[in-house]
Amino acid sequence: MNVSPSADFNECGSASAKALAAKLAALSHPARIEILKHLSGNRACCCKDVVQQLDLAQSTVSQHLKVLVEAGLVRFSAERQRSLYEIDREALAGISASVAGLVDTCCSSRPT
Amino acid sequence: MNVSPSADFNECGSASAKALAAKLAALSHPARIEILKHLSGNRACCCKDVVQQLDLAQSTVSQHLKVLVEAGLVRFSAERQRSLYEIDREALAGISASVAGLVDTCCSSRPT
DNA sequence: AACGTTCATCGTATATCGACGATAGACGAT
DNA sequence: ATCGTCTATCGTCGATATACGATGAACGTT
Protein backbone atom coordinates (compact mmCIF):
# COMPACT_ATOMS: atom_id res chain seq x y z
CA MET A 1 0.00 0.00 0.00
CA ASN A 2 2.73 2.39 0.93
CA VAL A 3 5.08 3.03 -1.87
CA SER A 4 8.44 4.48 -1.21
CA PRO A 5 8.55 8.21 -0.67
CA SER A 6 10.52 8.73 -3.84
CA ALA A 7 7.85 7.00 -5.86
CA ASP A 8 5.61 9.77 -4.73
CA PHE A 9 7.63 12.02 -6.95
CA ASN A 10 7.27 9.82 -9.97
CA GLU A 11 3.59 9.53 -9.63
CA CYS A 12 3.07 12.77 -7.79
CA GLY A 13 -0.24 12.68 -9.35
CA SER A 14 -3.51 11.07 -9.01
CA ALA A 15 -3.08 8.40 -6.38
CA SER A 16 -1.81 10.32 -3.40
CA ALA A 17 -3.29 13.57 -4.55
CA LYS A 18 -6.72 12.04 -4.78
CA ALA A 19 -6.45 10.48 -1.36
CA LEU A 20 -5.34 13.67 0.28
CA ALA A 21 -7.92 15.71 -1.57
CA ALA A 22 -10.66 13.41 -0.36
CA LYS A 23 -9.68 13.80 3.26
CA LEU A 24 -9.28 17.53 2.95
CA ALA A 25 -12.72 17.73 1.37
CA ALA A 26 -14.14 16.20 4.51
CA LEU A 27 -12.40 18.88 6.52
CA SER A 28 -13.35 21.74 4.27
CA HIS A 29 -16.67 22.63 5.79
CA PRO A 30 -17.09 24.91 8.80
CA ALA A 31 -19.76 22.76 10.37
CA ARG A 32 -17.59 19.68 10.17
CA ILE A 33 -14.64 21.50 11.69
CA GLU A 34 -16.82 22.57 14.56
CA ILE A 35 -18.14 19.07 14.94
CA LEU A 36 -14.62 17.79 15.27
CA LYS A 37 -13.82 20.37 17.89
CA HIS A 38 -16.91 19.46 19.81
CA LEU A 39 -16.17 15.77 19.60
CA SER A 40 -12.66 16.38 20.83
CA GLY A 41 -13.99 17.80 24.08
CA ASN A 42 -15.98 14.74 24.93
CA ARG A 43 -15.29 11.07 25.07
CA ALA A 44 -18.11 10.29 22.69
CA CYS A 45 -21.09 12.21 21.52
CA CYS A 46 -24.42 11.17 20.21
CA CYS A 47 -25.98 12.94 17.27
CA LYS A 48 -28.38 14.93 19.37
CA ASP A 49 -25.51 16.38 21.37
CA VAL A 50 -23.98 17.78 18.27
CA VAL A 51 -27.31 19.02 17.00
CA GLN A 52 -27.78 21.12 20.11
CA GLN A 53 -24.40 22.72 19.61
CA LEU A 54 -24.68 23.52 15.98
CA ASP A 55 -28.04 25.03 15.20
CA LEU A 56 -28.52 22.78 12.23
CA ALA A 57 -31.26 20.31 11.52
CA GLN A 58 -30.76 16.81 12.83
CA SER A 59 -30.73 15.35 9.38
CA THR A 60 -28.06 17.78 8.31
CA VAL A 61 -25.87 16.97 11.27
CA SER A 62 -26.33 13.29 10.62
CA GLN A 63 -25.10 13.78 7.09
CA HIS A 64 -22.05 15.72 8.22
CA LEU A 65 -21.24 13.02 10.72
CA LYS A 66 -21.56 10.45 7.98
CA VAL A 67 -19.10 12.36 5.85
CA LEU A 68 -16.63 12.46 8.69
CA VAL A 69 -17.03 8.76 9.36
CA GLU A 70 -16.61 7.85 5.71
CA ALA A 71 -13.48 9.96 5.56
CA GLY A 72 -12.16 8.04 8.53
CA LEU A 73 -11.89 11.02 10.82
CA VAL A 74 -14.56 9.88 13.22
CA ARG A 75 -15.34 6.44 14.57
CA PHE A 76 -18.87 5.24 14.83
CA SER A 77 -20.43 2.78 17.22
CA ALA A 78 -24.08 2.05 17.74
CA GLU A 79 -25.34 2.21 21.27
CA ARG A 80 -28.86 1.21 22.12
CA GLN A 81 -30.84 4.06 20.70
CA ARG A 82 -28.00 6.42 20.38
CA SER A 83 -25.14 6.47 18.01
CA LEU A 84 -21.81 7.27 19.51
CA TYR A 85 -19.34 9.27 17.52
CA GLU A 86 -15.78 9.50 18.65
CA ILE A 87 -13.00 11.48 17.10
CA ASP A 88 -10.13 9.53 15.57
CA ARG A 89 -7.12 11.48 16.72
CA GLU A 90 -4.68 9.32 14.82
CA ALA A 91 -6.46 9.94 11.57
CA LEU A 92 -6.49 13.64 12.32
CA ALA A 93 -2.80 13.53 13.00
CA GLY A 94 -2.32 11.64 9.76
CA ILE A 95 -3.97 14.39 7.78
CA SER A 96 -1.90 16.98 9.53
CA ALA A 97 1.19 15.03 8.60
CA SER A 98 0.06 14.69 5.01
CA VAL A 99 -0.51 18.40 4.68
CA ALA A 100 2.82 19.09 6.31
CA GLY A 101 4.40 16.66 3.85
CA LEU A 102 2.83 18.37 0.91
CA VAL A 103 4.00 21.75 2.13
CA ASP A 104 7.44 20.33 2.77
CA THR A 105 7.57 18.97 -0.75
CA CYS A 106 6.53 22.31 -2.11
CA CYS A 107 9.03 24.22 -0.01
CA SER A 108 12.03 21.94 -0.32
CA SER A 109 11.94 21.60 -4.07
CA ARG A 110 12.69 25.22 -4.68
CA PRO A 111 14.06 25.70 -8.15
CA THR A 112 17.17 27.67 -7.04
CA MET B 1 -6.40 40.85 10.32
CA ASN B 2 -4.37 38.51 12.45
CA VAL B 3 -5.89 37.97 15.82
CA SER B 4 -3.82 36.57 18.57
CA PRO B 5 -3.43 32.83 18.66
CA SER B 6 -5.27 32.58 21.96
CA ALA B 7 -8.26 34.35 20.53
CA ASP B 8 -8.60 31.37 18.30
CA PHE B 9 -9.58 29.39 21.34
CA ASN B 10 -12.22 31.80 22.50
CA GLU B 11 -13.97 31.96 19.24
CA CYS B 12 -13.05 28.57 17.97
CA GLY B 13 -16.23 28.68 16.07
CA SER B 14 -17.49 30.04 12.86
CA ALA B 15 -14.94 32.70 12.07
CA SER B 16 -11.78 30.67 12.14
CA ALA B 17 -13.58 27.55 11.07
CA LYS B 18 -14.88 29.28 8.00
CA ALA B 19 -11.50 30.69 7.14
CA LEU B 20 -9.77 27.37 7.48
CA ALA B 21 -12.51 25.56 5.62
CA ALA B 22 -12.21 27.96 2.73
CA LYS B 23 -8.49 27.36 2.38
CA LEU B 24 -8.86 23.64 2.72
CA ALA B 25 -11.52 23.71 0.05
CA ALA B 26 -8.98 25.19 -2.32
CA LEU B 27 -6.65 22.33 -1.48
CA SER B 28 -9.24 19.61 -1.73
CA HIS B 29 -9.01 18.89 -5.40
CA PRO B 30 -6.46 16.52 -6.93
CA ALA B 31 -5.77 18.76 -9.86
CA ARG B 32 -5.01 21.70 -7.63
CA ILE B 33 -2.71 19.64 -5.46
CA GLU B 34 -0.84 18.57 -8.54
CA ILE B 35 -0.72 22.13 -9.76
CA LEU B 36 0.86 23.18 -6.49
CA LYS B 37 3.44 20.44 -6.74
CA HIS B 38 4.26 21.47 -10.25
CA LEU B 39 4.53 25.11 -9.33
CA SER B 40 6.84 24.24 -6.48
CA GLY B 41 9.37 22.80 -8.88
CA ASN B 42 9.66 25.93 -10.92
CA ARG B 43 10.23 29.53 -10.16
CA ALA B 44 7.09 30.57 -11.96
CA CYS B 45 4.88 28.87 -14.45
CA CYS B 46 2.61 30.14 -17.11
CA CYS B 47 -0.76 28.59 -17.65
CA LYS B 48 0.30 26.67 -20.70
CA ASP B 49 3.04 24.97 -18.73
CA VAL B 50 0.54 23.59 -16.32
CA VAL B 51 -1.82 22.61 -19.08
CA GLN B 52 0.84 20.43 -20.64
CA GLN B 53 1.39 18.64 -17.36
CA LEU B 54 -2.17 17.98 -16.42
CA ASP B 55 -4.13 16.72 -19.39
CA LEU B 56 -6.93 19.14 -18.74
CA ALA B 57 -8.35 21.80 -20.98
CA GLN B 58 -6.73 25.19 -20.82
CA SER B 59 -9.87 26.80 -19.56
CA THR B 60 -10.16 24.26 -16.79
CA VAL B 61 -6.60 24.80 -15.69
CA SER B 62 -7.14 28.53 -15.75
CA GLN B 63 -10.07 28.14 -13.43
CA HIS B 64 -8.13 25.97 -11.01
CA LEU B 65 -5.36 28.51 -10.97
CA LYS B 66 -7.87 31.21 -10.26
CA VAL B 67 -9.18 29.24 -7.30
CA LEU B 68 -5.69 28.88 -5.93
CA VAL B 69 -4.97 32.58 -6.39
CA GLU B 70 -8.21 33.60 -4.72
CA ALA B 71 -7.43 31.33 -1.80
CA GLY B 72 -4.08 33.05 -1.49
CA LEU B 73 -2.00 29.97 -2.13
CA VAL B 74 -0.59 31.18 -5.42
CA ARG B 75 0.61 34.59 -6.48
CA PHE B 76 -0.26 35.97 -9.82
CA SER B 77 1.60 38.41 -12.01
CA ALA B 78 0.92 39.32 -15.59
CA GLU B 79 3.79 39.09 -17.98
CA ARG B 80 3.49 40.30 -21.52
CA GLN B 81 1.34 37.62 -23.04
CA ARG B 82 1.84 35.11 -20.35
CA SER B 83 0.53 34.97 -16.85
CA LEU B 84 3.01 33.91 -14.26
CA TYR B 85 1.88 31.85 -11.34
CA GLU B 86 4.11 31.39 -8.37
CA ILE B 87 3.50 29.31 -5.31
CA ASP B 88 3.13 31.16 -2.03
CA ARG B 89 5.11 29.01 0.33
CA GLU B 90 4.28 31.09 3.36
CA ALA B 91 0.58 30.70 2.77
CA LEU B 92 1.08 27.00 2.33
CA ALA B 93 2.97 26.85 5.58
CA GLY B 94 0.20 28.83 7.21
CA ILE B 95 -2.36 26.27 6.22
CA SER B 96 -0.15 23.51 7.46
CA ALA B 97 0.13 25.32 10.78
CA SER B 98 -3.61 25.86 10.95
CA VAL B 99 -4.32 22.20 10.37
CA ALA B 100 -1.71 21.27 12.93
CA GLY B 101 -3.32 23.70 15.34
CA LEU B 102 -6.72 22.19 14.81
CA VAL B 103 -5.37 18.72 15.35
CA ASP B 104 -3.54 19.90 18.43
CA THR B 105 -6.72 21.40 19.78
CA CYS B 106 -8.56 18.18 19.13
CA CYS B 107 -5.85 16.04 20.70
CA SER B 108 -5.00 18.15 23.70
CA SER B 109 -8.52 18.66 24.91
CA ARG B 110 -9.08 15.04 25.68
CA PRO B 111 -11.93 14.62 28.13
CA THR B 112 -10.02 12.47 30.62
C1' DA C 1 -1.51 44.13 -41.82
C1' DA C 2 -2.05 39.35 -40.97
C1' DC C 3 -1.13 35.51 -38.23
C1' DG C 4 0.05 32.66 -34.17
C1' DT C 5 0.34 32.29 -29.19
C1' DT C 6 -1.30 32.80 -24.64
C1' DC C 7 -4.75 33.61 -21.59
C1' DA C 8 -9.25 34.87 -19.17
C1' DT C 9 -13.88 34.77 -19.54
C1' DC C 10 -18.53 33.36 -21.06
C1' DG C 11 -21.95 30.08 -21.75
C1' DT C 12 -23.36 25.52 -21.04
C1' DA C 13 -23.98 20.92 -19.27
C1' DT C 14 -23.53 17.74 -15.64
C1' DA C 15 -22.61 16.35 -11.03
C1' DT C 16 -22.18 17.07 -6.39
C1' DC C 17 -23.02 19.64 -2.07
C1' DG C 18 -25.71 21.45 1.67
C1' DA C 19 -29.79 22.12 3.85
C1' DC C 20 -34.34 20.94 5.10
C1' DG C 21 -38.74 18.35 6.21
C1' DA C 22 -40.82 14.01 6.36
C1' DT C 23 -40.57 9.43 7.43
C1' DA C 24 -39.57 4.92 9.33
C1' DG C 25 -36.93 1.91 12.35
C1' DA C 26 -35.12 0.86 16.93
C1' DC C 27 -35.46 1.32 21.58
C1' DG C 28 -36.93 2.72 26.43
C1' DA C 29 -40.62 4.13 29.34
C1' DT C 30 -45.31 4.12 30.73
C1' DA D 1 -49.60 -1.80 23.39
C1' DT D 2 -48.76 2.97 23.05
C1' DC D 3 -46.00 6.90 23.34
C1' DG D 4 -41.76 9.56 23.17
C1' DT D 5 -36.88 9.78 21.88
C1' DC D 6 -33.02 9.21 18.89
C1' DT D 7 -31.33 8.32 14.53
C1' DA D 8 -30.60 7.29 9.49
C1' DT D 9 -32.36 7.76 5.19
C1' DC D 10 -35.22 9.53 1.33
C1' DG D 11 -36.75 13.10 -1.63
C1' DT D 12 -36.35 17.69 -2.87
C1' DC D 13 -34.52 22.11 -3.82
C1' DG D 14 -31.21 25.74 -4.70
C1' DA D 15 -26.43 26.68 -4.93
C1' DT D 16 -21.93 25.48 -6.11
C1' DA D 17 -18.26 22.84 -8.43
C1' DT D 18 -16.19 20.89 -12.45
C1' DA D 19 -15.30 20.35 -17.07
C1' DC D 20 -15.45 21.72 -21.81
C1' DG D 21 -15.56 24.50 -26.25
C1' DA D 22 -15.86 28.96 -28.19
C1' DT D 23 -14.60 33.52 -28.17
C1' DG D 24 -12.14 37.78 -27.81
C1' DA D 25 -8.30 40.53 -25.92
C1' DA D 26 -3.38 41.32 -25.67
C1' DC D 27 0.91 40.69 -27.48
C1' DG D 28 4.86 39.09 -30.46
C1' DT D 29 6.26 37.70 -35.00
C1' DT D 30 6.38 37.74 -39.81
From TrEMBL, chains A, B:
Keywords assigned: DNA-binding, Transcription, Transcription regulation
Residue ranges occupied by any HTH arsR-type domain in the UniProt entry: 12-107
Gene3D superfamilies in alphabetical order: Winged helix-like DNA-binding domain superfamily/Winged helix DNA-binding domain (1.10.10.10)
Any one GO MF annotation of this record: DNA binding
Entry keyword Transcription: yes
Stored CDD domains: HTH_ARSR
Domain of life: Bacteria
Keyword check for Cytoplasm: no
Name by which UniProt lists this protein: ArsR family transcription regulator
